[in-house]
Request: fold
Amino acid sequence: MKRKHLQRLKAGYSRLLEHKRLHVLDIPDDYRYMDPELITILEDTLTPCLKG
Reply:
């Protein structure tokens, strides 16, 4: 998700997202499905987010 997507979500669903935490990963959309490099990036980026 990019910052522009975050703004669209907030604009359209602000009430539903009121007490939710959203994370912008800023990962370019240049990868194929299940690309090993993308998986590594996602694991490295998401692990701290999922831990708390």
The radius of gyration is 13 Å. The mean pLDDT is 90. The helical segments are 3-13, 36-51. The chain is about 50% helix and 0% strand.
